[in-house]
Amino acid sequence: MGGPLVVVYDRGAASGAEIAVGLRELGPVVFLVNPSAHTRRTGEVLRRLGDVVPLTGDRAADLAAVRRLAPAAVLTFSEPMLPVTARLADALDLPFHSVATTGLLTDKVRQRERLRRHGVDDVRSRPLSSIEDWPAVRDHVGLPAVVKPVHGQGSRNTYVVTDDATAYRVLAPLLPAGRVSTVLVEELLVGRPGGPFGDYVSVESHHGPQGLRHLAVTGKFPLVPPFRETGQFWPAAVTDAERQEILDLATRALTALDLGPGLTHTEIKLTGRGPRIIEVNGRLGGHINELARHAAGVDVVRLAGQLALGQPVTVPPVDQPGKVHFQHNTLAPVEPCELLSVSGAAEVRRIDGIDGFRAYARPGDRFEADVMTRHLDLLWGHCDRHTDLPALLDEAQHRICYEFRLGDGVRRLSAAELHRGWR
Amino acid sequence: MSDTTQAMVEIWQAHLGDQPVGPDDDFYALGGDSLIALRVVADANARGIPIELRDLLYFPTVSELVAALADRDGWPGPDGPDGRSGPGDRDDGGQDDQPFGLLDPYDRALMPAGVCDAWPASALQVGLIYLTEASGDPRLYQDLVGVEVAGPFDGALFTAALAALCDRHPALRSSFDLGSYSVPAQLLWSTVEPPLTVEHAATAEPATRWRATQLSQAIDWGHPPVLRCHVAALPDSFHLTVAVHHAVLDGWSYARLCYELLALYDAALTGRPADLPLPPVTGQRDFLRLERAALDSPEAADYWQAEADVPGLLLDRGRFGGAADPRELLTFEIGDTLLAGLRTAAAAIGVPLKSLVLGCHVRALSTWTGRDRDVVTGLTVNGRPETAGADLLIGLFLNTVPVRIPVVPDDLAELCRRTLAAEQRGMRHRRYPLARIEQRLGRPPFDVAFNFTHFHVYDGLARLSAIRPGAWWAFDKASFPFMVDFMIDSRDFGTAVAVAYDPDLFDKAQATAYLERYRDALHAVAGMTT
User: Fold this and answer.
1) Which CATH class is domain A5-102?
2) Total structural domains in chain B?
């Protein structure tokens, strides 16, 4: 009898429920829970799905607690939990990315540096710790540029800077005088025209005893400015040649990072010069497990569990041509508001090709002003061809209606209007 | 659509915004998430549908969920044994439910005359008998209950009441044979001589003497009936004592037995019908099927192995292995104020009273042993089949299983919640026999066991009119080295905690130290100071 699978848990790419379902046949699950608003809210659920052990932040105590569990595996689906997980796996001699590799996966400055040294990609980038150094960094990187956090995930706190004035406005709160902080400044990768679809993709891969394998190239719906993500689909709408280029680039990037066993999620921009690395993440991609279960009946959480146990895995690519499977999110308004009602859920579920609709936001939820990705819902479904997708989405988005109280009164907005930016 | 399906559809509808729900709709696709799932599970449990959160996650449509339920435990549906998906509807059910249906035909051919039915003895029954024999201690697993009853004693009417009781419950007409058949068997006899001894006296002395004599000799479990009754009849009252081997019945059944015997006798005296509902006929067979399913479940075996496979809490595993001799007893009374405080705290924390006092027990164990990780306690659990009227069955439907709390938090409320969660996780495997857990582990899976009892069936005694039960007395002896009983309204102690321990393994100071810590934890959770 092996010990439990210890999942270092906080908000991440897989929910407690997905983890419990995915790992259920591999062994008992212990959630090593980082204290946060998310885990306070979901604690009751986690406790019913496995044992819950709190993470205290005291490294020695946490290690001792995990050691007593005699785990068969340690893994995580949460980006901020990668360093803790790597340290635990290292101390317990369990399969995971090494501590050094985890440093490369979570520190985008060091990641860029490593990729450059290995000749994988030459995106111009520089760390910036003081506003005074902006001119030098600008001269190296060029304009337009992107300012983003060194650590972190998704599009949070990512800004496009087109001139010095914008740069100083963006950087002032990010690099406050008297505090040590660093941001990453990189050249803005300009995408090639993508038609109705986004100019970037992600590659879902796994690395285990049999080496590196790619599960899928994930197509994306267009970003809403500045970097708000609105959904994804399989297979990506790329030509066979482009797909091969994308996979080759991902292979070179992942090989350069000395990966341990586990999943990766590599974001790639499709530019006029060919695919370029946006960033490599050492974990499952957001919503990818749900997509894989719907599209191919493959549980990627289970796959992660097997890899963490050191088991060999065989999974065919899950982004098979012949049917398009998609997920789409409605973005919350960027201005402060309160959600009053959601309607149309039952109607949208009746549309041929729509497989499910789940509202994340509940009436009474309040939203602060924020221009970053903030999803109100998740809609998923399928169709035969990529060309069918825009019409199907449009129909669905017109059925879903949100009612908000805004600064100037109450407004009913369809998902389609919210998507377009209704002002 | 079956009743269970219909009920689940209604529950989903109530929690998913009153939209149309079909049995094949996916919970998540309809907008469900795990917090909504918690409410669905609570509602389903309230309607008697035994699902857990993970069931809903693993089986996200009503059809899958209901099918999974039907496959499990022989659960008969919320309407009891007559439900459409019950064990009686299984393809092999008709055969199994015939007399001797669970035994090999060769065994049946060897049955002595007078045996009307037989079935394999359960793992726990075999285990208890084995321990009794191996210990050489005649008191071990011999359960005695005595009561002083105000009112007339009529020998003929009382004998008739005892005979009626034995008619109602096959277990009271049973004996065990562990060697003659291909499996250890419990034999049910068509009739038994009512096992009653009556002594007329001026004092209760004969009762005291009979109890002492009874405890000095082991109960012969090989000859029917394994039940013995003694009455010391005084002019206006009588002292009744019942002795049974624990392999025949559990504590709840014992309470049922005492209540029914007195109710039948009261009815005979008054000439009114006793109005006792009949227990379900397939009860023991259902239990055996459930135990068999648990035994066949590798998931259950792995679950308990994982739950118990941590360093022992107290005892040197090299030195101690077999049956202990818990002959010393310490108790403390809970009192109405503390009990009320505990009930209020349980409601505020959102856990049943049982989990609250179990959580306090875990806290006491933790401070007593200086361990805040991997605290394991045994917990006595009820394995009765979930059929209507299962509470009317007299038999042995218990198990004691390890419950592990990986980390004992400082916050007592949080500890109680974790304890409840740990109990719930083990629920589906609760019928996997303790002996098997111990066998695989190579040692007893816990040093300390905990039992929570509230035998409210005794409340019915207040309705008797011709007789009035007064003071109660009881004796029982298990083989756990350290057994903690939290009793609500018990006949002999009232609402109290009793600790039975083996003085060869624990000294009195140690046992007292535990008891004080337990009392402190109970007061603390109730917001009271000691």
Assistant:
1) alpha beta
2) 3
